[in-house]
Amino acid sequence: MIGRALLLRCPRCGGRGIWRSWFKIKHACPTCGLVLERGESEDYWLGAYMFNLVAAELVSVATAVVIIVALWPHVPWNFVWALSVVLAIVMPVLFFPFARDLWLAFDLMFRPPDAK
To answer: What pTM did the predictor assign?
Structure first.
């Protein structure tokens, strides 16, 4: 399920076309009919926001650490700072659909749609 989510496919069946646009997910999978908006309320996607925030910050910090270690002791601090800030802003936008798909996959693992 995680692999299918990382490919932006339906976590249950692997079907394509679950995204209308980069920021809009369809109501249901066109292949298997899984309802993708599984939340009982408007706070369902908080886990996806957590995935997105953690991924963005990890990429930003890891990039800064790699540059600092690679260029030590002559580190271009202004460049490291600017790149980290840009990554911290851009990564949540780039990772948005992946975070939502991953959250949906984790939710399906713990709450299968057929379980009552």
So the answer is: 0.84
